[in-house]
Structure formats: C-alpha cells, structure tokens
Write the structure tokens for this entry.
Amino acid sequence: MGSVSTSATRLRDDLAAGRISSVEATRACLDRIHQVDGRVQAFLRVDAEGAMAAAADVDRRRSQGLPVGLLAGVPIALKDILCTRGQPTTCGSKMLERFVPPYDATVVRKLREADAVILGKVNLDEFAMGGSTENSAYFPTRNPWDLERVPGGSSGGSAACVAAEMAPWSIGTDTGGSIRQPAALCGITGLKPTYGRVSRFGLVAFASSLDQAGPMTHSAEDAALLLEAIAGHDPLDATSADVPAPRYTAELDKPLDGLRLGLVRDHYGAGLSSEVEAAVREAVRIFESLGARTVDISLPHSKYGIATYYVIAPCEASSNLARYDGVHFGYRTDEPSMLAELEAERRAALASSGDSARAEAAVAAIDSPLVRLYRRTRAEGFGPEVKRRVMLGTYALSAGYYDAYYLKALKVRRLIRNDYDAAFENVDLIIGPTTPAAAYRLGEKANDPLAMYLEDLYTVTANLAGVPGISIPCGSTAAGLPIGLQLQAPAFQESRLLRAAHRFQRVTDWHLRRPDLS
Amino acid sequence: MALSRADVEKVSLLARLQLGPAELDRLTGELGRIVDFVEQLSELETREIAPLAHALDVANVFADDVVKPSLPRDEALANAPKRDDECYRVPAVLGE
C-alpha cells in the first residue's frame, strides 16, 4: 500500500507530484477493502464505480493542467449518516434502508468540491446512538486490533476502516464522544470540532445541540488538512458559527511555548483502568518534556455529565426522530395487515364487553388507522436502543416531568460549561483519558444500557459545553489494544489542539502502529 | 420516582411506538433504572441558574426574504412509501 496507508497528507503530496495517480490510490483502497472488510465489516456500501470515475476525473484534469481541489484524488469514507445525493444513506437503520437523499450534506459537498474521492459509506450505531456499533441494524463492525472486540461507536465503521487501512481517513460524527471514543479504541486520531465549526446541514439529526462532524485520521497533521476542507460558516445551518476558519495546516508547526495543561483531578477515580491511567500519565510526562507545564484543575460538575447528557440527548432525539412516520420517506409498515389488526382489535373489544357503553369506550381506545400506521412503522423500523432513547426523551419532555428532567438538565449543562470557562482561565488545554478502558468484547455490555452509557463519562462534557476535543493514540494494553489520550480546548481553538497533538506525534510512534490483518 | 408499566404504556402512545407486552416489561425496568440514575441531578441547587439549551451564542439568524428555487416536488416525493402525482398518501383520516 505504501503511501496510501501511511498518511493522507503524504498521499495528497504524492498525487500532486505525480508519483501516484488517484486511480491507483483508489484501486489500492478498493483492493484492501476486498481483502479485509469481510472480517472487519466497516463498510455498509462501497461505491467502487463512483469512486473510480471520480478518481479518473481528477487524474484527467490534473494531466491537462486544470485546477484541482485541496484534497484532489485522496480517497475517503463517510459515516452513513451524512446525506449523499443519489446514494443510499441508511443511518444504520432499517427505517432508512431504501432512503436516497435528494441533496448532499454540506460536508459532502465541500469534500466533492475539494476533489476527494468518496469510497463509500461506513457503519454506525443506528442513528449514531451507541458506543460499540453493535446497534447497527445491519451487522456489527469489528475492531481491527482484535476482531472479537468492538471498534467503539457510534462512528465505529469510520474508525475501523482507517485503522485497517481501507481508507486513509474518514468522516465521523460526535454527539457524546462518537468520534473520539472509537478513535481511541481503534488507535487512530479523531477530532470533534467546536459546536458550529462544521455545518450540520445534511447530517441526519440525532441531538441537534450536540452533533458535530469531524475528521478521523492517522495523525493530527491529516486531521488539520481534513478539517480545513470541511470547516466554515454555512448559511444552510442556522447554528453554524460565522467565525472564519483558520488554515489549520499552516498553523501546525507554530510553537507552543509555555503550554499549560490542565490535569483533571476528577478523571482519576474509580472505573479508570490502571493501564489507561499509566499510559495517560506517561503522555503527560512526554508533554512536560516538550516544555508544557501541568496544572491541577477540577471540573466539579463533570460527574453529572452522563446524567445531564442522557436527559438532553434523548429529549432532542425524540423530537428529531418524530419525522420517521412512514409517510414522507423511509420504511412503512404493511397497510393491509395493519388494518386487519385494527379490525380484529375492534371485534375483540365488542365481544369482550356485555354492555354497549363499555364496548364503545373499548373501541374508542383503539388507535386510529393513521396513529397505528405511525406506531407500527416506528416499532418495526427502529431498533431497541433507538426506541429506548425515544421513550426516555418523550417521557422527560412529557407534561409534569419537563421541569424535573429537561429543564434541570439544561441548568446543569450551564454549570458544566461554567466549569470549563473557569478552567480555561488557567490552562490552555485539558488533558486526560478518552475512555475508562480499552475495547471490550462484542456483546459484553449489550444487555446493560446504563453500563454502556457510563463509558462516555470523559467525552460527553465537551459536547454539552460545545468545546472541541481530540483523541490521539498514546499507548497500548498488555493485550495489544490501543489507548487514547484526550485533549480539550476552548471553543474555536482546534488549532491549539492540533498543534499539541502534532508535537506529541512527532516524538511518539503510537499513531504509526497498525493492526495485523494478514 | 418509580416508573410504572402504565407510565411506559402511556409514553409509548405519545412516542408513537407500538410496544408488545414483553417490550413494555423490559422497558419499564430499563427506563426505570436510567431515570433513577438521572435523579442524581436533583442533588444540585439550580434555582438561580439559567438553562443552557445551546452552546453557541447565536440568537435569531435572519435571511433575506427572497424567493429561490426549492426542491422539485417530484424529488421531494421520491422517497415516499406511498404517493400519487402530487401528495403523500396515508390511510383515511376522517370518517369510518
């Protein structure tokens, strides 16, 4: 694979210099997918034809001396929650099995304008709800470092396809850690930008005040390049920030003298595996040897992060997912059998009750055909985790509970944000683990939703506060599983995150290690 | 606050989900445990705290009131499970 596998930045340079063609690079990725994806199962759909045509087009324009885009000819994989015009976008759900978007997400449009070559769409937890990719309605994706373990999630396909060298990089999305956690578990670099940094237009909504798309790559250098291509204000997303996006690649080598790193006391509590803790402490020592100073800080409300998140995110999800009604797009239940079911219920209600008033009441309690159409469609189209969250959110927003749950969570969200604001008065970055432990086995937490939620404790607070975070590989367990280091920065300081991560990657080689899939 | 099976059944109608008896039983337990976990937020005194619905400081974003081409009807209807030339089709809503 040579330059295809090592670095997207180098591949771009090799393409520009004519050392490799985009057709060759794309073919190498498709060959690799053919070779290993039967075992990893990262891709939901490979668009070999479209990718080869796009690659040939870039090669042709380049050979004619015509202008080409920032990422010209570099292949990329997309999480299957970003709308691609004319190409299925399933969100990992049976609900959208046959959904073909009539437009591109802004992120996708920007990638096409940059002349990136889209290889296909990769797997995820249904509607990005989950941390293992086991909630995909299609199949679970495997961790390339150990095929019996989860790749993390929800952007598990995005992480696994990069770790397994099927694509030099990919796009993931992060609502509570869904870029950073799979990046950590698969040994790659994953950046969740500041809320509003990257347009959400065409990113199928899970929790609108938390969702962000971002780069999943082998290095901070690659993440800087990819973020540069997708960041920026978008009039089609009213929550997109009208703040100029810097040229991240140009700022990568700016010095970081006197960097102050905040070490969160609350991060080193019960539940953190000793191997992860040791790797993170070693990473902190490396930063110190590079001239950084560490400062002990406290984020006193971060321990309420999970509870806050698991109110706000399901509330927003229950509202966003109301659009899947079997009418406008997506799956619809079988109507004749639905009507027959209602008729049978009506007969049973009439037969079971002697007096006519009670029979009338029983009949009146039966759903109307339209309501039953909605309910059966959603019952059949959504998987268990999506139903759980829609139910939780509907409950928390329902009359009598709104103040106790949703409003309360929004207030605690303010406290969490205030903690970050106070911490960033004294430090430039916050450093800590991305996850409490390395990748777990498939099925290990599948029957305990709450245990799965608790895995997100280090990542959800960045989404609640809207600040950017990056996970980079910083070690390995005795069993050979990757460990992730998380850095967080104040809003719109992605450049600082990338510079620090890049400095670290210049003196370490964790990000260069690859799983053995021979 | 314990979540009852009747609560869950009521929420399933609000959420437009049809749940069978086994699913209702399972969800009553699972949602109950999650709601109990979330109850920890009540430890915090938040009377004076303003809610934060959104991390970004943006208020209303206005666009010029200009008519622009929109998604053509046929494309908008293309993903509909059931349609005619102009509309989405649903089961009869009025009358029996």
Summary: Residues 302 and 346 of chain A are 52 Å apart (CA to CA). Chain A touches chain B through 72 residues (CB under 8 Å). The mean pLDDT of chain A is 96.
